[in-house]
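hey
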């Protein structure tokens, strides 16, 4: 398995792609309201991506028919937008999208609440995000890849959640999916050693119930096996000697993220 290590120039291009994707996520989330179709959400998302001079990574990728995966409630990932599916107050929606900027990809996902949601749903969204940051404590050159996986798993386990095992994160760069695979669950081994310049997409997919999932007949849509809610949080990150640089956030979010990483590292020390 050959893992690409990015040059300083490549890392800068991926920073630019990530900043654009962070803005696109923020702008799309602000547009979502009850009564919209998931098709409308996809259309708006694609328009936003193209407004920044980028190409949607997902559109026609292995035949996927949209620019945004719009996954509602029990859909874990790969929800296909539809003119017949309306979102309503109390839904949670996972938005997964990617951009290509000057030949380099960035990939990120967010789960958002539509209006007022249940306490369980709100906690699931927040804890899925925090499970990502639990993994970030170990995303540093010299550490082992699967230490990230174990930390994500252990955080989610504290709440009795199901950590999806059938789908994993991945390397990313000039292709959306590159080696290595990045599981969100514990492995028997610690995996490869992380190297400065690696870029990976870490993406916890956490279910309120079982970790098991089922594929729908369309070949894309993945649902929880028991119909429970699912949340998804993903960022593209750059491994450095001092820790992870989270690329797929806005400039404003970067300040909050850096403070969170600082507090996590301080707590670990």
């Amino acid at each position: 398995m050959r893992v690409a290590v990015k040059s300083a120039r490549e890392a800068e291009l991926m920073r630019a792609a990530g900043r654009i994707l962070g803005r696109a996520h923020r702008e799309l989330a602000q547009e979502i309201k009850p009564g919209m179709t998931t098709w409308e959400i996809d259309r708006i998302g694609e328009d936003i991506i193209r407004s920044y001079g980028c190409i949607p990574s997902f559109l026609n990728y292995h035949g996927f028919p949209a620019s945004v995966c719009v996954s509602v409630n029990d859909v874990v990932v790969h929800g296909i937008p539809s003119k017949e599916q309306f979102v309503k107050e109390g839904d949670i929606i996972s938005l997964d999208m990617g951009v290509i900027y000057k030949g380099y990809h960035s990939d990120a996902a967010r789960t958002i609440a539509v209006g007022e949601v249940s306490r369980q749903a709100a906690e699931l969204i927040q804890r899925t995000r925090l499970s990502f940051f639990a993994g970030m404590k170990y995303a540093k050159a010299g550490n082992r890849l699967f230490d990230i996986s174990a930390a994500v798993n252990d955080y989610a386990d504290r709440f009795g959640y199901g950590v999806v095992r059938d789908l994993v994160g991945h390397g990313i760069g000039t292709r959306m999916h590159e080696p290595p695979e990045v599981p969100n669950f514990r492995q028997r081994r610690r995996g490869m050693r992380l190297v400065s310049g690696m870029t990976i997409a870490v993406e916890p997919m956490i279910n309120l119930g079982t970790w098991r999932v089922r594929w729908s007949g369309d070949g894309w849509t993945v649902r929880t096996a028991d119909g429970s809610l699912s949340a998804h949080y993903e960022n593209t990150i750059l491994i450095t000697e001092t820790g992870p640089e989270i690329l797929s956030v806005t400039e404003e979010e970067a300040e909050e993220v850096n403070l969170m990483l600082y507090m996590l590292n301080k707590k670990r020390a």
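The chain has a mean pLDDT of 96. Helices lie at 8-31, 38-51, 119-136, 145-157, 251-268.
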